[in-house]
Amino acid sequence: MRRNIFVLGALAATAALTVSGCSGSGQAPPANGPVTITFWNSYTGPDRPVVEQIVKDFNASQKKVTVEMTIQPFDVYSQKLLPAMSAGKGPTIAALDASQFPQYAKLGVISPIDDFYKSGAIDRSALPQASLDATTLDGKTYGSPMIATNTMLYWNKDLFAAAGITGPPATMEELAVDAVALTKYKEGAETTNVYGIAIPDREAPSSWGVLLWADGGGFVNDARTTSIFNSPQSVAAITKWNDLIQKQHISPVGLNGVQADSLFGAGRAAMLMNGPWASTGYKTAGINFGVAPTPKGSAGQFAAAVSSNMHLAAHATNAERQGAYDFFAFWNSLKVSTYYAVNTGFPPTRTDTPASDLEANPTSQAFQKSGNGRFYLGGLAKYADIDANVIVPTLQRITNGGGDVTQLLNKASEQINAGLAG
Q1: What is the pLDDT of residue 12?
Q2: pLDDT, tens digit (0-9, with 9 covering 90-100), for 95-142
Q3: Which H or E element spans position 65?
Q4: Domains of the chain (ranges plus CATH)?
Q5: Cα(417)–Cα(422) distance, rounded to whole angstroms?
Q6: Which of 59, 113, 122, 344 lies 20 to 30 angstroms, CA to CA, from 200?
Q7: Around Cβ 125, how many Cβ atoms within 10 Å?
């Protein structure tokens, strides 16, 4: 999976542009001949060979459909995809992160695929509910799962042992205590300090979301109609963790996802909430780590959900639609889902996969057990704007000591509500 899965471009601003040279979709196949469908994604990371093999296997498995796949760096992909699909020249299938999907659905460039699930081509109940929820808008389902996971707590076993801590924290109170005990901080020694936990505020799975959800806080209500960023529970949670950051120095301020990842990979952060894609890099770096469920708070145990899904272009012909459905069913078959999981460390998209089938990859086994995933700002067409222009700068002001927590959260909630109303 690409490392920068969470970096979102300003897609709406490019919607009116056109892209020359994009591979076309929408041409009717020859009568009684095979149909060719195009598939764009940005899987440039270590799992690229696995994705390529699955496409190769699908093409070899039958003679009705040929998938032609184009893999592009995420920044290039983000710039090209929406303009191409808006012009009817984009791919038949596009992979989108759950946070990007609402914008494409609202613009009408991707098609609902409820008829795929109604056809019986695949058992909907065997797919992760979080992924299905993340591709549902106004009662219509727009996507088929490609990858789905929740974050877990990575912990450095050597740093824990040195601090006399026998295992990972199970509760948020234990997380706070352990983070303080594991921190080795000296003013001015930012390049050598060891932190109890790395808490990124952007371009990463939402660690702040996990901290807020655990104690009853959050960003928007379940109906996505109003902000709860300034609720008493949110204020209390942010105040608590901000105090630990500013006064106990448990995490550097202003980390992005790559920086937090690098700290843990260098043995300078004892804990980090992250997904399975990070495990290979930590192993290569020689980190003696374990993974555990994200700790439980007063309101329950929650994790940040991550989902990338396959979406059908609105301009697809009937033949291309059926070809795409065949590929969706193939990708989410028990055999292929297990193959992807074992070879990447991700949990399978099939919830009925026996844990014994994942024995070849303990990371995949561990992440299969993670639960209670929630999507940060899930289902919001203005996800990118609210994230980049409201939540991230607000958290950065707070953790930099830039004002009263309650006042800053009240102002942020006003901005969020204005965005939701708009």
Answers
A1: 35
A2: 999 888 999 999 999 999 999 999 999 999 999 888 888 899 889 999
A3: strand 65-71
A4: 12-150+306-374 (3.40.190.10), 152-304+379-421 (3.40.190.10)
A5: 8
A6: 344
A7: 9
